[in-house]
């Protein structure tokens, strides 16, 4: 392994370590999706569209807009619960992807040090490639989660007039673009 690669890996590890909050891991109590238009915070999903009051989706499928409970039917509640679960899945899969990336950086550093110590390439590149596949697989789950949010969003826009202002948060091609990005960066 070249010294340039070692320097890159050590720099990457330093950057990742700097992302924590002093507890060893970042603060995962709040997650933003779609440039902050969807926030997963504690036990609720907050939707924000400029010029529109925030909407809050609870785990049980309750919907509040501008602090007021919106009357909903059972099918609408189920779609809201689907939205809630999919947004939380983005959060969970995002954390898993981040952890896989940190593990990859750690393994890369260990491989670089071992390679320098032994004076050869060894199998460090193969280990890095295997680790990067794990990161890619974790990231692909996020793409599916975005597709699930989009499905719930479209269902809600068709069934629930109060939800229409939030119907464009996840754009039509978001999941496809996400998958395309993952394929491009492999």
Keywords:
186 residues; 6 strands; elongated; single chain
Q: Largest beta sheet: what is the strand line-up?
A: 1-2-3-4-5-6
What's the pLDDT, averaged over the residues?
78
Low-pLDDT residue spans: 1-25, 182-186
How far the N terminus sits from the C terminus, by CA atoms, comes to 20 Å
Q: Into which percent range does the helicity of residues fall?
A: 55-70%
Order of helices and strands: HEEEEEEHHH
Q: How many structural domains are formed by the residues?
A: 1
Structural class of the helices, strands and pairings? alpha+beta
Q: Number of DSSP helices?
A: 4
Q: How would you describe this structure to a colleague?
A:
The protein is an alpha+beta fold and 186 residues long. The chain has one domain (3-26, 73-184). Helices cover 58% and strands 11% of the residues. It contains four helices and six strands, in the order H-E-E-E-E-E-E-H-H-H. The chain has helices spanning 3-17, 74-118, 124-159, 174-184, and strands spanning 30-33, 38-41, 44-47, 55-58, 63-65, 68-69. The protein has a six-stranded antiparallel β-sheet, covered by helices on one side. A hairpin with a 2-residue loop joins strand 5 (63-65) and strand 6 (68-69). The protein is elongated.
